[in-house]
Each structure stands twice: as C-alpha cells, then as structure tokens.
Amino acid sequence: MTHIDVTIVLVAIATTCTIMMIGLGFLPFPGRAASIWSAGFALAMLSCYLLVAADQIGSEPLRGAAHGPILCAAAYTWVGLRARRGREPIMLIPTIVVFSAFTIALGLAAETPVYGPLFRLAFFMAAVTGGLTAWELLRLRKAEREMALPLLVVSFGFVGLAVVVAVDGVMRLARGAIGQTESDMRDLYDLNELVALLYFVCALVTLLYLVRRGAPKPEHQQTVDFFSIARDRLSRAKKADDRWWSLIDVRLDDPTELLEASSGRAFQRISARFVSDIRDVMPPEADVHVVSPTQVLVLLPRPDTAVRGYLSRLLEQIGTLTDQSSVPIRLSASIGVAAAPLADYDLDKLCAAAADAAAHAQVSGGDRWERAVFAP
Q1: What is the CATH number of the domain that holds 97?
Q2: 3-state class (DSSP) for residue 9
Q3: Where are the transmembrane segments (predicted)?
Q4: pLDDT tens digits for 178-222?
C-alpha cells in the first residue's frame, strides 16, 4: 500500500468510529466523559482528513500540523477516563494547550531539521498519556476490566512504539543525524498510521462500552453501611420488643421493556425519578438502600396499618412517572413486604422473604404489593 492508501483507510475507519461514538454513545448517553471521548474521535477524524488534503496539495506544513490533533485525541482518552471517575482536575485545558502548541510548532517546523526532534517529543507526550490511560483502565471495577482489555493492550502498544521512536532518536543523535524534515519521516508515518487503525477500533470497543454502562458509583460502601445499620437497628428492636419494623423490596416492573422502549438517557431519568420518589414517600426514619437503578430496599419503622398506607402512596406515585414523549407506557412497581418479628429480626431472612414476595407480585402482573409468608 502507498502512503495515500494507508491514509484513506485511516480516514474511513476514523469517520466510522466517530459516527458510532457520537450516535451510539454520546447522543443516547450524554455526559462529560462521553463528550470528551466524542471530541477526541472527531479530532482524530479531522487529523486524517487534513493528512489526505496535505497529500493532495503537496503541503508539508499542513501535513506536519495534521499530526497534532490525532496525538491530542489519544490524550483525550485519558482525560475522559478521569472525568468518568470523578477526578478533579480532569486536565482538559492543559491537554488542549500543550497539544495545540505542538500542532502549531509542527506546522511551522515541517520544512526544517527541527521537525524530527519536535515530532518525537510530541509523540512521547502522547505516549505518556497512553500510559496514564492504561493506569486508569487498571483502576476500573472488576466487572468492567474485561471490556477494557482492547484499549489496555493498545495503550501498552502505544507506549512500546514510543520507546522505539525514542531509541531511534537517541541513535540518530549519537550519529549527529537527529535533524529531520517532515518529508524525511514518511516511513515512520506509515507505521504510526497502521497503529492508529488498531487504536481507533480498540478505543471504540472499550469507550463505547464504558459510556453505555454509565459512571461508576460507590455502591460497595453504601451497601456495607446500609446492612450494618439495618442489623444494628433490628438487634435493638428485638431487645426492646419493638414489633413495628418491616423490610420493603421495591422493584420497577418490566425494566428490560422500558429500556428497549426508551433511549438510554430517558431510562436513566426514569430510574433516578423512581429512587427519588421512594425517598420522598418514605418517612425520614426509614433507611433506603439502592440495590440497582430498578430495585430499592427500605427498612421501615412503622406499624402495619401505616406500612399499607405508605405502599399505596408509593404505587400511586410511581404510576405518575410516565413521560409520554420518551416512554409511551405506564410505569408500575412490584413490592414485597416482610415483617421483622416473623423472621426473628434476621436481616438476611427478611431480604430473602421480601425478594420472594416482590418476585411473586411481578409474576402476578405487577403494580401491587404482597406480604411475605414465612413457614411455621
């Protein structure tokens, strides 16, 4: 393949990946990380089109400058991962400033011997962000690491290529031949563009998965806190012979159908409103634990008659959630209720009994609550 052929393939891949990231990632699941990664793909696509234009008109300054945005795009991967994890500052502005300066400098130096060392420095900086990207990927939750493998591997490959480029530069420096113009580096460009093809595909697989999965939440600590607090409350209630404690398992009906009938963003709004309404209906003394976006546990210190009133209000409130413009169906929930004295105030037994009651309510058609039945 000639140089222009490799570049045209790169243009096709970059355009396709950018459309997929924006259409399947950012638009249905908008967010800060998704916007940063979409911008990175768009920058890389722009860089590819500039390379084709430079080859067609024979402009070395344009070809030299065109390598800046694609190196910046690699840095955007790291920035987006920091944004997704909630780290501040996310280093977006410094990244833009540094690689904008490299872009301008590469364009101005394209026809001078300074271009070679300058390009190697810019490539090394992008490889540093590649290493930082790999570090961020290794910090992902265990459930996400499998899909992070494609980008992790190519990030390590990027770092390895940077080492090769750096060693080549040191050898040239030892021979006194470090100076290279843009046209002297065509063989290195062909290798870089082939690596870029792999990077595009691997980055799309991992980043699109992370966008659609959503931002990580500190679920483990919340789970530990809820269960430790609930066990303590039940233990003290048992000693005081306080019989008015119940565990409630609330589940949104037909979550799979809801997701299919709405956009990802609309489903996120529905699940957020679902949790919010439970918190609003339940009294301040209740302990609320979000198991998932469509399931919530509530430990409620109220007598039986009051519990029935709260459940009726909750079912009515959830039924008003429907946003006709995004979800053309009526929402409902199924609720299981387990009374603490019947399970000897054992939290594990209460959770299992409430879950069974909620599942039975769903099988019975949903939009109802059912009381747990304990074997004698």
Answers
A1: 1.20.1070.10
A2: helix
A3: 6-27, 34-52, 90-109, 121-138, 150-174, 194-211
A4: 677 777 777 677 777 888 889 999 999 999 999 988 765 544 445
